[in-house]
Amino acid sequence: MSDNSNAKALFQLNPSDPTPLYAQLDRAIRLGISLGRLPPDTQLPTVRQLAVDLCINSNTVAKVYRDLERAGILETRRGIGTFIKAPAPKAMAKGERDRLLMVLADRFLAEAATLGFSADQLLAHLVNRLRKGQKEYGITNESKE
Question: Do the Cβ atoms of 81 and 70 come closer than 8 Å?
């Protein structure tokens, strides 16, 4: 994944966006994982290499990697590199997982409504975004399982 064009395509950052670069990179990594572009055990570029590829400060990349490692999303293997961590077994009870998903969905719907989007618009966009991401990377539902 050390290819410059690949890193730029995978981790799209916009310097003119008011969102800080570290938040954009964090979001890009999480999105890549959720779309299946970054499956478990995928090695990420080194901090220095990704900083060079994206033309950002290496401290920014290091902060994102460190925060995602603390969140249990990435793991650093000493002497080898940083990898997407395999999700932990579903230790949480189904009822608790459903409750957390409902809270997340409610928060997302409320934020979308605040911005003037209907639930139908949001759902249609999410479905299209997921399909586009899967199509771009040749991911099928069968290959995600």
Answer: no
